[in-house]
From TrEMBL:
Record region (Disordered): 236-255, 459-483
The protein, known as: Arylsulfatase
InterPro entries in the cross-refs: Alkaline_phosphatase_core_sf, Sulfatase, Sulfatase_CS, Sulfatase_N
Basic residues compositional bias, start-end: 473-483
Lineage of the species this protein comes from: Bacteria, Pseudomonadati, Planctomycetota, Planctomycetia, Planctomycetales
Family note: Belongs to the sulfatase family.
Amino acid sequence: MFSAFKDHTRLAIINSAHRVSFKRHMQIRIIFYSILFAAAAIVQLIDTPPVDADQPDRPNLIFIMADDMGYECVEVNGGTSYKTPRLNQLADTGMRFTHAYSQPICTPSRVELMTGKYNQRNYIRFGVLDPAQTTFAQVLKKAGYKTCIAGKWQLEGGLEGPHHFGFDEYCLWQLTRRPSRYPSPGLEINGKEVDFPGKYGPDIASDFICDFIKRNDDQPFLVYYPMILPHWPFEPTPDSEEWDPNSQGAGGSQKHPEYFVDMVNYTDKMVGKIIDQLDASGLRENTLVIFTGDNGTATSVTSMIYGKSFQGGKGSPTDAGMHVPMIANWPGTISSGIVNENLVDFTDIFPTLIGTAGVAPPDDLELDGKSILPQLLGKNTEPREFIYCWYARNGGKTGDEFVQNKTFKFYRDGQYYNIANDPREKTPLDVNSLNPRAQENLTSLKQALSKYDNTRVMLPEPYPKQVTPAQKSPKKKKQKNSQ
């Protein structure tokens, strides 16, 4: 498959005037990004404690994140609309989390998990990751890990962006362009734009990862797989009866959500493909695999969970927009069939990954996350008492801000909900007539939120800003989904 990438690279030169103009534009942007990243590298010195790169027992790390796939989409979580046998198997032989939370939409989640910081500290705007930030890939690469990312990028930075943020190799969609992501996709592979007529984007990305695993089976590696699936446009997959390899894709259409079923099923298949490659390479027992979703399911999709209809809530800072599946699997290390009911959020990913590798964060890096490695290993540890969220899709000084535990949720503006009974947050509690339990929780949540008073950091815009009508800020607390 790797040789096929090279063949496609040689063939994938489009000589239309539009493409020539676009490439000239991109050359200018690449020069700009290179200067910007060089400056950021001078400011950002990652002082990671030394680790023996030849240490044989350092585990491989694979972090898989589906795109727009909420908690209800996995059978083992009680969902009945989709077939997810490979995810079920990972949960049955590993640890399943029932209270894992992302941000409500794509970019905020990606920024949070890659940097281990809540958005109020480093979020600029949709589609951007500040080049001065430190990512888990940078820390692991410095510690001797080979690093790979494949799937969806959506963080700007030009063709050098993934390298700058710590990835040795990449195969990505939405890096410098946005052609079809599914049939006949246009991707960027290690600095080159490559088109794949008649192919399927998720197959290309997963093949790239499998090839990376085969080529690096003698050293510790990190694979970050931010999947393209199952985000709209809702289209047939190669396993659908209506699949047409010659299709040019459906653009941004959210029509035909019935295909979302096939897309979730194919997501499960792609996860299984990676697991099968680990087995074939003899690496399964030395690899931690974590699966999750980047936010809730699209609002145009209705699923069934525990016998009840459930509408997706992507873009909303509610349970439907932020409650995501999370499964951790590591044969021989994580016990089988464990259901973990503790709170987890996306800031916890960074410290968990580097901690599993035996690497401490740089001395000058302050992380918000709490490693879940002790929980994965079955050790007694103090779980989170609450999660915090600051969310503004397009950045700015203010956003939706709250803290929550598993039962209650308190917003900065004073709204207070029993989310166990009212997960859609339709009826706020009257704070003047609370029962003792609700009052006690309100007091503790207020105290927790006070830790984040006046902590919003406004970072400078790193790239030329291009705002389209679809990027205009929606009303507060009803922020809509996007790419």
